Amino acid sequence: MFDVSIILINYNSSKHTINCIQSILSNTSKEINFQIIITDNCSEKEDYLNLKLFCDSLHNSNIELHRNIINNGFGAGNMFGVQFAKAKYLAFVNNDTLFMNDCLAILKNELDKNQNIGIAGAQSYKENGDFMISLDHFASPTREILGRNFLELINPKKYPRRKKTYSSPTQVNFIPGSFMLVKAIDFYEVGGFDTNIFLYYEETDLCIRLAKKSKFAYLIPEAKFIHLHGASTAKSMAIKKELKISLLYIIRKHYGFFGHKIVMLFLIIKYFFSSILKPKNWTLFFLIVSGAPISKSLKGFQKIISSNQ
Description:
nine-stranded mixed β-sheet, alpha/beta, Spore Coat Polysaccharide Biosynthesis Protein SpsA, Chain A, 10 helices, 309 residues
């Protein structure tokens, strides 16, 4: 039995995954007994073999590489890895992150001390050392229509400032999915990640469900890491569409029929007028008008590879 099972997803980005693993190994203290489980989410064969060669060279039985035969997204990719976990804690770490200090020990110690913490995140920084926002407010009709700054203004206790540098553990709505530590028992109790979601808002959904069990998200600023933001996901119109599909799915799931329709109407109006100035946004407009159904997610267009590919 390990203290922590670290789950990583690799998708055609083995160089980032290798650097991430090296940073974990070099920054994690010996007091933490951990395993690293890598889900290769159906990468190209060359990328997978490059990662496999590196893992084999470590001669470390606590590092496991498992190849998925289909790219089923962030949540499902992590759930694929979770089946191999044998630990009290689960750490979900993006492969485009680099530990700056003994993050796992710091987060684990806070979870051990404070029973109110359901899931903990570290403070992230850009590659050049600049501060990065490491907390956010739940996706909701109010947030989407009135904005984050308004929420922080009217209720700073419930909605702590995102752009503030914190010096002590702080309860927040949710922490980004780039680095999260959660007790396995709590993760299993709420059902883990919602695998209907292909990309984006998985951590929002998880933190909402944990909060309903009085297990809250905390930012632990003492733990620090570098996030090469977006290194494993290129920006494209397809990704922007995926964001809207996931957003509206989460709104419908947690705020019901009317909350969903209010946000949909707001987005229809927003993208109708923005598309006049930016014609490329018509794609988003028509997606939202259609209801942005899960059936239009990238998840539905993934292909299974054979075992010898």
